[in-house]
Specification:
This protein has 110 residues and is α+β, with helices and mostly antiparallel strands. The chain contains 3 helices and 4 strands. The mean pLDDT is 85. The structure holds zinc ion (ZN). Zinc ion binds next to loops.
Length: 110
């Protein structure tokens, strides 16, 4: 009889979700993805650990706030990882607002 731990789930903060409380990201149950990482059973985000998820998010997400990026990078560094000093993909909030449909205000029609 062989014993495996491949079906062991674990709970950890999910770095892939937007709905953070003031204390941080929501804690979700994660299941092994078969490649040494874990997949969030709530949203499907894959991370090897909380700090690994933070590092991945630093590298792959488009950031709109340098403060938010630096806070996430600090989480990754706390786990011994080395995210870039500056976000690889950075789009200031003003630029993303410009890309959105214009507000329907009478002044915009003038
Ligand atoms: Zn999740």
């Amino acid at each position: 009889m062989s014993s495996t731990a491949t079906d062991a789930r674990m709970a950890m903060p999910c770095m892939g979700e937007d709905e953070w409380s003031t204390s941080g990201p929501p804690v979700r149950p994660f299941a092994p993805d078969g490649n040494g990482e874990y997949v969030c059973t709530y949203c499907g985000w894959i991370q090897g650990s909380e700090t690994g998820g933070a590092d991945e998010l630093c590298r792959s997400a488009t950031w709109h706030s340098l403060d938010a990026y630096r806070a996430m990078a600090a989480r990754a560094r706390a786990g011994g990882l080395a995210p870039p000093a500056d976000p690889p993909y950075f789009e200031p909030a003003a630029a993303s607002a410009a890309a959105a449909p214009p507000p329907a205000s009478p002044a915009a029609r003038a």
